[in-house]
Amino acid sequence: VLQVTMKHPDTIDMPTDRQMILFRIVQEALQNAIKHGQASNISIEVTQAEDQLRVSVDDDGKGFDIDNSSLHGVGINNIRHRAKLLGGIANWNSTRQGTSVSIQLPTYGN
To answer: Is 24 helix (H, G, I), strand (E, B) or coil?
Structure first.
């Protein structure tokens, strides 16, 4: 059984086209947590402060070795590329108890 929880503001102050790219980033992080991490619990949290948006996707999956070549996989490269398109960055932290993906983006421009 997979359980997903999400915390987010009522609205995100970001143009729709940029929101769609952000959606694809979160979708990829979820797919990675389910497929590769075999997670049972996934938590998504979106926070916005002034012109910065932070999205974290945390799971309780099996994790992976960050120093391994898995960080060069298609899914992770897609997340990095899309975050960069939005003028932001994506970072990973992973242990045997799960993985955390943190994305930081400006809400406007690049």
So the answer is: helix
